[in-house]
Amino acid sequence: MDYDTYGSGAVEIAIDLANAQLEAPETFLTSHAEWFAPGTALTLSGRDAGKVRETSQLIRAVALADSQEAVIARLNELLALARPRPYATDHDGELHLHYASADSPALEQLTTTVAMGLSQVVVQHGWQRLGVCSAEHCDNVYVDTSRNASRRYCSNTCASRSTVAAYRARRKA
Ligand SMILES: [Zn+2]
Ligand SMILES: [Zn+2]
User: What are the residue boundaries of the Zinc finger CGNR domain, all occurrences included (predicted)?
Assistant: First the structure.
């Protein structure tokens, strides 16, 4: 299993975007500033802010899809927004790829990065690797990095909360 692909920031930013509240999409951009080329204006028009929300919903749709066919269809919808023009960089001390042209607008850099990051995971590791948390009252998206693809929760917090709830339910019964 190639952990680097999963651990790569492009996947993390995609998962973060799917789980973000996005009342103010510009806040999302500034909190993920490392993914934007230096000098990129991290501001969005009202229309572009709407597109950030749409992209978030598309990532969620990929995670919710329950067959390879559905994952492919939704992933391709997401990829249709991407304008890849990759370049290698070591701006943070580690050699890695950025997927979008450094002089493209923030929205284009964002959609391209998340679409390419998610596609890498799905194509290399299988369509079941993205999921939605099974805990009650949580619908966070996660990427499953476990060896046997057995993950069901977005976080350890949700996993242990669900274990406790199941234990209580059994004791009550
Ligand atoms: Zn980087
Ligand atoms: Zn959760």
Answer: 129-171
Distance from residue 157's CA to the centre of ligand 2 (Å): 7
Ligand 2 centroid, distance to 154 Cα (angstroms): 4
Task: Name every residue whose Cβ is closer than 8 Å to that of residue 141 and which is 6 or more positions away in sequence.
Answer: 15, 18, 19, 59, 60, 63, 130, 131, 132, 133, 154
Judged by its nearest atom, the ligand closest to the C-alpha of residue 109 is 1
What are the extents of the domains in the chain?
Answer: 3-172
Tell the residue number behind the tokens 């369509």, with chain if given.
127
Per-residue pLDDT of 3-17, as tens digits, reads: 555 667 889 999 999
Taking the centre of ligand 2 as the mean of its atom positions, its distance from the CA of residue 139, in whole angstroms, is 6
Distance CA 21, CA 19 (A): 7
* CATH node for 3-172: 1.10.3300.10
Are the C-beta atoms of 1 and 147 separated by less than 8 Å? yes
* Whole-structure pTM value: 0.88
CA of 65 from ligand 1 middle (Å) equals 29
Q: 13, 63, 51, 3: which is closest to 33 by C-alpha?
A: 13
Q: Which ligand is nearest to the CA of 89?
A: 1
Residue spans of the chain under pLDDT 50: 1
